[in-house]
Write a structure and sequence with these properties.
- The chain is mainly beta and 459 residues long.
- The chain folds into 3 domains: 9-125, Cupredoxins -  blue copper proteins (Immunoglobulin-like); 141-301, Cupredoxins -  blue copper proteins (Immunoglobulin-like, Sandwich), CATH 2.60.40; 324-458, Immunoglobulin-like (Sandwich), CATH 2.60.40.
- 7% of the residues lie in helices and 43% in strands.
- The protein has helices at 110-116, 162-167, 269-273, 337-346, 445-449; strands at residues 9-21, 24-31, 40-43, 47-54, 63-65, 86-87, 90-92, 98-103, 119-125, 141-152, 155-157, 173-176, 179-180, 183-188, 190-197, 204-208, 214-219, 222-230, 233-235, 240-246, 253-261, 285-301, 324-331, 354-355, 367-369, 374-381, 386-390, 395-400, 415-418, 422-427, 438-442, 453-458.
- Strands 10, 11, 12, 13, 15, 17, 18 and 20 form an 8-stranded mixed β-sheet that branches. Strands 1, 2, 4, 6 and 7 form a 5-stranded mixed β-sheet that branches. The protein has a 5-stranded mixed β-sheet with strand order 14-22-21-16-19, with no helix packed on it.
- β12 (173-176) and β13 (179-180) form a beta hairpin.
- The longest helix is centred in the last third of the chain and has 10 residues, at 337-346.
- The chain is globular.
- The structure holds CU-O-CU linkage and copper (II) ion (2 copies).
- One copper (II) ion binds at residues 330, 386, 442, 444, 447, 452.
């Protein structure tokens, strides 16, 4: 689906069913599809007029994750609209070319709604920049929405056990673009894969089954200034990366991931906390390999082959020196630690997670940021690693737990994997009022829904 502002475009959120396993139907949600939504093609410099219809039975939103939009267009929890209603935002597209996404963002329901399928990808193109990369959609440039799901007797199931409430929900079956055991045929040469981790909680460490090198060419917010060679790419929930791989050897290969449980901090501190029961401890760290996608190479030569250019037509913004610093700690327990852990284990309801000791409150604005001023945000996490996401702007990661910034965390980001003290520089150029503030939250959707979220105004 092309959304370029010249014509009206409708995303119709509705309930449906899909046979993920042959002959077994699963209840799903989708935007104009049974499951997930169409890829939106947005063009920089135009206005995208989108009508989002709610034909489901519950309130939904459409959040344009990664776009730089004022709060009233951002689709956060305050902009929920009910069954039978239609939201018609006009989105000014003035963001660099990037791989973004959209999903529902109703507080307390985001995990369930995204799991059922209310999400899709956005490809934002900038016709003014000639990018020397594969860019023919569906031919040498592929969107890959990666999600883990749990199937019981073939039925897609969202069933939160106690540990899932703590660590976030993980399933053992992988869907790519809504398909189990996906296969992709690519031309012989350079191919661009746009990876979106749209899983509720799972972190991936992507690579190829033969260990071949590939290049990352873009992160969340757009192209990197130079391709980065790597053999493994870490992607936590909500993050995107574009990679280019060379298939000119015509060998079939699999895109795989290390099977990383729960985003636990490296040392397995949660495993230690939980004692020898093995509920967590046993799955801490990589325990095997997940197949993500089988790739076969056709006889057809690719449009682009040979070496990638050393530089890409992108520069990172100079955000200047920060005017102030803000500190955030992501709390698995917003109250006393052991008491809240009991709450987590006993009750499914109520919010026990938070940031800086408080759980999300839709009616509380946590702070105000002056428009156009650069800030340093220092983010820390207790108990486990968390993907930290900010609405309304992209940021630059300047420090990661005292280590060098991971290669895949360079470039413009809107989600960063926080595993130890993480520092970002951010500047907000779009306003947001108390009626429709910007969110900052953990992108493990079960954590977000349980209150690991806050909101702020900009102006
Ligand atoms: Cu992808 Cu606040 O969300
Ligand atoms: Cu977002
Ligand atoms: Cu979290």
């Amino acid at each position: 689906m092309e959304v370029d502002g010249r014509a009206g475009n409708t995303l119709s959120a509705r309930a449906g069913t899909r046979n993920f396993y042959p002959g077994v139907s699963s209840p799903t949600l989708g935007f104009s599809q049974d499951y997930l939504g169409p890829t939106l093609r947005l063009v920089k410099g135009r206005t995208a007029k989108i009508a989002v219809e709610n034909r489901t039975e519950a309130p939904i939103t459409a959040h344009w994750h990664g776009m730089h939009l004022p709060g009233h267009l951002d689709g956060g929890p305050q902009l929920a609209f009910g069954p039978g209603e239609t939201w018609t935002p006009e989105l000014p597209v003035n963001h660099p070319a990037a791989t973004l996404w959209y999903h529902s963002h109703v507080h307390g329901e985001t995990a369930t709604q995204v799991y059922r399928g209310l999400a899709g990808m956005i490809l934002l193109d900038d016709p003014e920049i000639d990018v020397p990369l594969p860019r023919t959609y569906g031919e040498d440039d592929f969107p890959l929405i990666v999600q883990d799901r749990l199937f019981r007797r073939g039925v897609m199931t969202y069933d939160l056990g106690h540990m899932d409430q703590m660590a976030g929900f993980q399933g053992s079956d992988i869907l790519v673009n809504g398909t189990l055991q996906p296969k992709l045929t690519v031309p012989a040469g350079l191919v661009r894969l746009r990876l979106l981790n749209a899983s509720n909680a799972r972190t991936y460490e992507f690579g190829f089954s033969d260990g071949r090198e590939f290049h990352q060419v873009a992160s969340d917010g757009g192209l990197l200034p130079a391709p980065q060679a790597m053999t493994g790419l870490h992607l936590s929930s909500g993050e995107r990366a574009e990679i280019v791989a060379d298939f000119s050897d015509r060998r079939a290969v699999r895109l795989v991931s290390a099977d990383i449980a729960g985003g636990m901090m490296g040392g397995g501190s949660m495993g230690g906390m939980m004692g020898g029961g093995g509920m967590m401890g046993a799955d801490t760290g990589a325990t095997g390999t997940l197949d993500i996608l089988s790739i076969e190479v056709s006889e057809q030569p690719a449009r682009v082959s040979g070496a990638l250019p050393a530089r890409l037509p992108a520069t990172l913004p100079d955000l200047g020196a920060p005017v102030r610093t803000r500190d955030f700690t992501l709390n698995v327990h917003s109250g006393g630690m052991m008491g809240s852990m009991l709450n987590n284990l006993v009750g499914r309801d109520g919010q026990t997670m938070g940031i800086n000791g408080s759980s999300y409150d839709m009616s509380r604005v946590d702070f105000h940021v002056p428009l156009g001023e650069t800030e340093r945000w220092r983010i820390n996490a207790d108990m486990m690693a968390h993907p930290f996401h900010v609405h309304g702007a992209s940021f630059l990661v300047t420090g990661m737990g005292g280590r060098a910034v991971d290669p895949q965390a360079t470039g413009l980001k809107d989600v960063v994997h926080v595993d130890g003290l993480t520092e970002i520089l951010v500047r907000f150029d779009k306003p947001a009022t108390a009626e429709a503030p910007f969110m900052y939250h953990c992108h493990i959707l079960e954590h977000e829904d349980r209150g690991m979220m806050g909101q702020f105004t900009v102006g």
